[in-house]
Amino acid sequence: MPARVQGAVSVGGREAGEGVRVCDPGQGDRAFDGGLQREEAAPRGQAKADRIAKYGAMRFKEYAAQWKAGQRDLGPASSVHLESLLNIHLLPLLGSRRMNTFDHKVVEGFLQVLERNGIGLAAQANCFDKLKAILLDANRLGLFDDNPVAGIKPPQYDPRRVVIPSPEQLGQIRTAGDDSFLLVADLMSGCGMRNGEAFAVNVNNIVADDVYRITEQVNRTTCQYERLKHRKVGEYRDVPLPARVRQSIEWYADKHGTVDGYLLRHPGDPARTFPHYHIANQWQRIKKAGETEIPDGMVVYGLRHFFASNCLTHGIPITDVAEWMGHKTIEITFKIYRHLMPGSISKAAKILNHNLTA
Q: Which residues neighbour 25 within 8 Å (Cβ) at sequence distance 6 or greater?
């Protein structure tokens, strides 16, 4: 606070003692700093205004294209999936809309249109995730006064309970096709591999008698060996290798040979990777023949579900199962397979009671 000068110092014809305020010596510095801050803020404010003017008037289609170009971490299959969501669902409904006109009402209206059009919940959830990512990117540029996706309830996709074969059914299924089908069935049910990972099986990845190292997969889109899902190039997963699966690998290699260690190659051209449709076509023929006991609703991926079931029902920690299966988070593993986990509350009650009553 400015100091009052006591005494007979005259200021502007009046004595300072009459209540005249004299400037604090530091006040000039503060005034200078404030002016400097305003000068620095002015270019920043202008830059923000320029961004809003440029991107706010931009159509969603153009903005989404620029955003998509920055998604450098996407693999080929993920890029194709994103392109499909944009072209089929988002752009037809939102493509011509100016970016500065988005608010929560627009987003909610988009979701309601998807519902009225009978779009599945899984597709609705994926569409919302992508729209949310694009609008949050625009929000960081300052295009909106209020976040347009704040408070929006996303579509709730709850996948159906997985269908898993019994050990007896698995025994029939694995031998119902050709040699490649048997090998893939053993890799998926015994090591928890995804389809594409099984198609890339390599004898050189047996790193111990009971450990297989999953390093790559055959990409469905490019038909080339690619990095693993949710992994960077060079990353891998070490998974348990049951004796029967190791024997199947060795048996297949001895019978059919390998190409650079790879067991499964294109039936018509060993220089090419193993095609996804080869197993899918066999699966359809096996089901159509009706000679093999297959639980209702089971798909080929049920072989991988068998691996999770076998682990969890025998008390193997879900954290280990999530890692072996390559799930992005343990929440995914829990959501899909929680019903397979042994009832822990009753078990805990009995264990706790043992010492309480000792």
A: none
Are 82 and 74 in contact, with CB atoms under 8 Å apart? yes
pLDDT at 10 exceeding the cut of 50: no
Of 32, 24, 33, 28, residue with least CA distance to 3: 24
- Give the per-residue pLDDT at 3: 47
Cβ neighbours of 162 (radius 10 Å): 19
* Position 35 pLDDT exceeds 60: no
Other beta carbons within 10 Å of 321:
23
Cα–Cα distance for residue pair 26/77, rounded to 1 Å: 64
Token pair, residue 303, equals 């072989």
Query: CB 110: neighbour CB atoms within 10 A?
Result: 20
The count of other CB atoms within 10 Å of the CB of residue 231 is 17
CB 75 within 8 A of CB 219: yes
Give the C-alpha separation, 81 to 68, whole Å: 12
In angstroms, the CA 295 to CA 287 distance is: 10
For the cut 50, the answer to whether the pLDDT of residue 82 exceeds it is yes
| Other Cβ atoms closer than 10 A to 158 | 9
> What percentage of the chain exceeds 70 in pLDDT?
84
Structure tokens at 267: 């039936």
**Cα separation of the two ends of the chain:** 74
What are 206-257's pLDDT values in tens digits?
999 999 999 999 988 888 999 888 777 788 999 999 999 999 999 999 999 9
d(C-alpha 47, C-alpha 37), whole Å: 16
Q: How far is CA 131 from CA 79, 85, 172, in A?
A: 15, 10, 45
Q: Indicate the Cα dihedral angle 283, 75, 161, 164, nearest 10°.
A: 40
